[in-house]
Amino acid sequence: MGRGRAPCCAKVGLNRGSWTPQEDMRLIAYIQKHGHANWRALPRQAGLLRCGKSCRLRWINYLRPDLRRGNFTAEEEATVIKLHALLGNKWSKIAACLPGRTDNEIKNVWNTHLKKKASEQKPGVGGSKGEPADGDPDTPVPSLSSASSTCAGGGGGVEELLELPDIDMDADIWSIIDDDVARLQQGDATVPCTTKASPEEEGNEWWLADLEKELGLWGPTEESQPQAGPHDQIGYPGQDMEMVMSSSYPQSRSDHEASNSE
DNA sequence: AATCAAGACAACCGCAATACC
DNA sequence: TGGTATTGCGGTTGTCTTGAT
């Protein structure tokens, strides 16, 4: 158990820090088309200068189309507080009970304001680090009495959320990726996401070029993009994609929150 | 108008668990 | 059966935004 941890992010030559719209675009397009059977091989096959771990995190937490963005509703907050009292810092289990919310998001929300709110409501309970207040009579969890099994058990829960919904991507993107895969299969008989990645990395050059040209983001690498920050507005080909991307790149925090408030 | 502090969010790190060979 | 590769999870940190002074 737990042996042979992959070097992953320690690799040199990989991008780190915030994701650019181009990177997001590439990741979304690739996953929508080919899935994510192998996170480790995915970035190479998608032409991303990221480690698989980073790609997975980005997809799970921000790019998944079925994510809910915006402020937590009062009901969601109450659920988080209740579940945290029951489960402690089991963010993934709590997230399994909140469709469209991620463990990272819940964790952030908890650490920023729900912890305070919970401690205000129950001075003796909230705020304890990972200490579930199980058995606390003041913490009834009526519909979640067996949260871990009710919400995530039976093969449901998060797994259902991870199913890829249909997102209308611009056909050009698919053609680019299809073409890419075809070339890969011809070249080294490597099928993306289903086999071990081939060591040939130079094949990404034209892939990157094609996609970036197609997206109007032409540049040899992301480094050549002059600080294409998260707030840059880029024309995304599909409306649904635009929705996904805009949700990932709010123009400002207040705009983001205002646009999602209910 | 400029500066500072606090809050909020996104991303990274490292460990653990599981799957595969 | 043991070792390795990969994925998942939780904690932590870095950066940006906003509000106060």
TrEMBL record:
PANTHER family: MYB FAMILY TRANSCRIPTION FACTOR, MYB-RELATED PROTEIN ZM1. Keywords: DNA-binding, Nucleus, Repeat, Transcription, Transcription regulation. Residues 141-151 have a biased composition (Low complexity). This is Uncharacterized protein. GO terms for molecular function: DNA binding. The keyword Glycoprotein does not apply. Residues 11-63, 64-114 form the Myb-like domain. GO terms for cellular component: nucleus. The lineage of its organism: Eukaryota, Viridiplantae, Streptophyta, Embryophyta, Tracheophyta. It comes from the Eukaryota.
